[in-house]
Amino acid sequence: MGVKTMSGLLILKAMQKAGKRPLMAETMNMDLDCSEDGQVRFKCMPTNDHLNPGGTVHGGYAATALDFALSCAVQTKLKDAFNFCGISELNVKYIPPIKVGQVLYAEDRVISMTRQTGITAGEIVDEESKIYAYASGTVMIKPES
What we know:
This protein has about 140 residues and is α+β, with helices and mostly antiparallel strands.
């Protein structure tokens, strides 16, 4: 089966099995931990490269991790893995600061799907399920040709 004919879920599972990461996941130090129909979980560990001038992990780290995972959650629902355009809206709420080296998980799920959009929600949590940030978002889906 060629990549162009695989569903979004099959693409993510194949990448995980092969130990491959998209370039953004490399930048963010994220690995796909679990992917199912309508949900994903990425293991994340921020590094010194993600620090802001105040010495804590920049809020953009959580926003980007959630953006990435929200898109992938929608991707699991698509028959054509490449049929999405990306996030058109992202709303992030931050709770405690994130520290370098912390093992975190970006857990995201699809709330609603139409032919044109996927509505999603997710959290950044630690190994004890403490929430560090949460988000909702809208993913634009390409019209079928």
